[in-house]
Amino acid sequence: MGAKTDGTNGTNGATGDAGEGSSPRLTRAVWWFVFHTACATAAVALAYLAPAAPLNRWLRGPATLTACLLIPPAALLVPVLEPRSVPWNRSKAAWQLAFPVLTGAVLGVTAGQAGHDDGLRERGRWTQAVVVEKRNGKTDRCVLRDLSGQEISPDLTQGSGCERHVAEGDVLRVRHDPEGAAEPATDGDTPSYDGVLVGAALVHVLTGTWGSARMPRLNPAEPANPGAGGRSARAGGRP
After folding, report:
1. What is d(CA 88, CA 85) in angstroms, rounded to the nearest whole number?
2. How far apart are alpha carbons 108 and 118 in whole angstroms?
3. Phi and psi dihedrals of 34, rounded to 5?
């Protein structure tokens, strides 16, 4: 009977260990799902609201910088730098966390463009503007002034109407934001970014949760030093 009781206890112990192991894994996955969802939400909100709300001019720059350059790397750095019992040289490669970094940057840039378009749609005014200076570079920029001599801010970018054929002294019909938050444009039609934002957000959250949950954690049931654990077991068996 003693042997039967030991066997039953052993079976129950194995079942209990399995149950205890699955619950922390689920909790860990839920935590990372919430974390990456919060990152995606913050990136979209900051990048969109900076030109669309618009935020105070002193806050627009930091908000856009945070959304596009600071939040995306957090998807990699927070899981990698998370306190863990496994030494770094035993950790799995964090290559899978490159996906949420890239999608996070896409979210920030796309949400920012959507915010510019919506802000211009809500507050924009059509006017005749003179190109007083054209700055050539990887992306051409045109410095504009209206017919009364008032500078239009920000500059007109290449994708919004400052094309290569435009020259200094040209007069353009542009829609600009009196608040100076949204970029001016020569075209009244703007594309929809909803599909890109939803798709990038889903990929960001799912790949971030998957990659972060795969980062190794030491099983609390296992000894931190297998060698020491073995010696301890042998010592415990001695009378």
Report:
1. 9
2. 15
3. -65, -40
User: Residue 15 to residues 8, 27, 42, 153: CA-CA distances in angstroms?
Assistant: 11, 19, 41, 67
At 39, list the tokens.
């990152």
Mark the ranges of the chain whose per-residue pLDDT is less than 50. 1-20, 89-90, 218-239
- In the numeric block, the tokens 């909100």 are attached to 45
Q: Residues near 60 by Cβ (< 8 Å), separated by ≥ 6?
A: 50, 51, 54, 181
223 is written with which tokens? 């000894």
Answer whether 0.70 is exceeded by the pTM.
yes
* Amino acid letter, 130: V
Task: Output phi, psi for 110, to 5 deg.
Answer: -65, -40
Q: Extract the tokens encoding 125.
A: 């005014």
* pLDDT tens track for 170-185: 999 999 999 999 999 9
